[in-house]
From TrEMBL:
<dbReference type="InterPro" id="IPR033985">
    <property type="entry name" value="SusD-like_N"/>
</dbReference>
<keyword id="KW-0732">Signal</keyword>
<keyword id="KW-0998">Cell outer membrane</keyword>
<dbReference type="GO" id="GO:0009279">
    <property type="term" value="C:cell outer membrane"/>
</dbReference>
<feature type="domain" description="SusD-like N-terminal">
    <location>
        <begin position="97"/>
        <end position="229"/>
    </location>
</feature>
<protein>
    <submittedName>
        <fullName>Starch-binding associating with outer membrane</fullName>
    </submittedName>
</protein>
<feature type="domain" description="RagB/SusD">
    <location>
        <begin position="319"/>
        <end position="634"/>
    </location>
</feature>
<comment type="similarity">
    <text>Belongs to the SusD family.</text>
</comment>
<keyword id="KW-0472">Membrane</keyword>
<dbReference type="Pfam" id="PF14322">
    <property type="entry name" value="SusD-like_3"/>
</dbReference>
<dbReference type="Pfam" id="PF07980">
    <property type="entry name" value="SusD_RagB"/>
</dbReference>
<dbReference type="InterPro" id="IPR012944">
    <property type="entry name" value="SusD_RagB_dom"/>
</dbReference>
<dbReference type="InterPro" id="IPR011990">
    <property type="entry name" value="TPR-like_helical_dom_sf"/>
</dbReference>
Amino acid sequence: MKKLNILILIIVLSTLNSCKKYLDVVPDNIATIGSAFSMRSQAEKFLFTCYSYLPREGSPSENPAMLAGDEYWFFDNIKNIDPTAWRIAKGEQGITSPYLNFWDGENLGQPLFRGIRDCNIFLENINSVLDMSDFEKKKWSAEVKFLKAYYHFYLMRMYGPIPIIDKNMPVSASPEEVKVFRQPIDKCADYLAGLLDEAATDLPSILDKPTTDLGRITKPIALAIKARMLVLVASPLFNGNPDFSSLQSPDGTVLFNPAPDQKKWERALLACNEAISVAESAGIKLYEFIPNATTGALSPETLRTLSIQNAVTERWNTEQIWGASNSRTYDLQRKAQARLDPSKFLNETVQSILAPPIKIAELFYTRNGVPITEDKTWNYANRLNLRTGTTNEKFYIKPGYKTVELHFDRESRFYADLGFDGGIWYGLGKFKDGSDVWPIEARAGGTASRKGAQLYSVTGYWPKKLVSYLNVINDDSDYRVLDYPWPIVRLADLYLMHAEAANEVKGPGQEAYQYLDKVRNRAGLKGVVESWTAFSTNPSKPGSKDGLREIIHQERLIEMAFEGSRFWDLRRWKEAPAVLNGPVKGWDLEQATPEGYYRQKTLYVQAFALKDYFWPIKESNITVNRNLAQNIGW
């Protein structure tokens, strides 16, 4: 009995200690909180601490939406990139030590609940700072309210229903008070919408000091994230999802609304309208590349390509609503860069390992702006046949080079986004459009082919969209990169969210078409109705709600390719099983002839189960806090 009592005491003490760790609700260094807000300079340091928890979305290893889905693949035992997220893509996620754990801040995940705690500390103390104006206190408080909302949103998108931490627990809180419940999705959404509205009220539309404050939160950012959040909770994964209707808290609270609610789409549409209005009033517009002294005059083909690429890679361009200044893209770019110059083949700084599968190449439209499976002028059945490039395709494909039909007669975004065998890579020190430019030679023995055991694209494709055309590969290990802030939100994304919400609320019509067509127009395509009428085997498709929904979904997957959108979109639409259950394919890289190289090889067969829609909560958290319901399937 004495031994049993000692054992119980040990368990209780361990539980109390774990409760404290669970949400880390007791502020560290309590005695220093007063000094942290004793003057403006100290409070500003705490403000930047609140910013420091922002996930590094421009890091391929730390952003789950990059490597944990199906946009990239690698070879086994890869060493040039942390494979943690890729293990999720391979179905290896678990509950003992979850990968990319943003709940606890483990395995490359940021500790977002700790970030929320620090945001609460800031908001509770900022008004005590003496050498600040009320105006500046309101502005900083608005930034932190946004960050607090964003961290909640990030967790909700990943885990589903979450605890709402509106205020920090007092030091005197009992262990039972610390054991919080997950809140229903609708309650989470209402809380975040209200917090984002509060933040937007006191945020500037345009930064007063852009040279020093770029990356800090503005009103367009707050409203764009509000729109993204409301589109998320209006989507099938969150809105009346029968697969998760059984998920309840231990007290019986139902965490997912049992039936679809059309008013959620109406609310999302209003949010999109407001976000677009504020963004455009602040001067944000779709990016268009302007030729310069480096490029000289450009063909319409290359001009469109650079407009698409530079909407992502040009620093602080006109389309960016929120650029992540905490995410350097140097590492991302060297992993996305194909090796092109035979004289620099020994430069291993260019790792060339981010490899989109063949199915990503098949995703893009034909040059007529419709899917390759629908274009009545494009022979889908012959897409794997060989064809030789001519001068007619010189801005996209090397003349005289033999490649597959799949690479011909595609839309501008295909050529802007993807590097492929025989394709043209504009820039990297060569700017004579249509003549002196780099071709990609990916077959065995070519400059972009496999280098050693580690440095190569396992599929034969590269995400060219993510690489600045101004980068330069020099001798040895010198790769000069034009770094850029990762675009967390840009205007095209907001336009496509509006089109989606408008179709869900009102069906096909001008309100849905207008922003869809703006994005298509920048890519050199005709409007959706005109394109389908003229070229699709299903010309009436844009005229039905279901048909237009399918079009909008594919338009998003194309426009936002490689930007961390596909991963979340496939989930919120509940299309992940249909897309992710199947083989990941690339070309036969060991072959030097086009006949040998262009044979599809299965690299892996992915499997997506119901449980994979949401991250598991770490098992030890469930053990400590029985008020937490584990996600279904885990």
